[in-house]
Amino acid sequence: MGDVELNQDQDMTRLRAYIEALEDETQLPPEPRLAEEVGMSRGRLRTLLKRLEAEGTIWRHVGKGTFVGRPAPPASPQQWLDGASLNEIMDARLLIEPLLASRAAIMARPADIADLEACMAEMRSARQLSQWKRQDERLHRLIATATHNSLLTLLYETLRAHGRTGLDARLQDVFVGELPLADTTTQHQEIVRAIGRRDPALAERLMRAHLISVRDRLFGLR
Hints:
Blueprint: H1 3-20, H2 31-38, H3 42-54, E1 58-61, E2 65-68, H4 77-82, H5 86-107, H6 110-125, H7 129-145, H8 150-175, H9 182-196, H10 200-219
Antiparallel strand pairs: 1-2
Helix pairs in contact: 1-3, 5-7, 5-8, 5-9, 5-10, 6-7, 6-9, 7-8, 9-10
Protein name: GntR family transcriptional regulator
Domain HTH gntR-type: 3-71
Organism: Roseomonas mucosa
């Protein structure tokens, strides 16, 4: 073994000992300081850091620095949703559900329209908040399924499922057992009517206005 190789091995031993004394996820000092602390040139340090990165001892985050250990795995879609606030879910619904209503106006079959109208009849006859909420959830789901696009329906169901608990609690806080104002039911009726008339632009516009109204009532001024 030549002197260069021997010196490099000795440098690696010192660098490895320095890193192994640190906790995982610790950020290493900037290269000039680290080179001084472990007693080697910056060129040698860069070479050895590349080797340590390749073996998984350290990892680099562009723009942030070099860290001990392996990077954390990226969050799964489920983890992202679990960490989403109710406001974030409502914002996502504001982007997605108007498009669902528009698509439903194009794709809905006669049976879908009949189901929407039957749901509206149940909503109008509701006398308790719990009954009204069931029909509200059913109506929005029926609009999603009326697109006849399984991926869009799954996207809606996922957002709705993750927002349900918080939304239900907020409804209880705002309405304290009483029914929502009649204009909310009227908004639903207008959306269903636009879908039945095969007017995608109107259905989209009405759904967006409805969701904005709901968001403002639940999270802004009543």
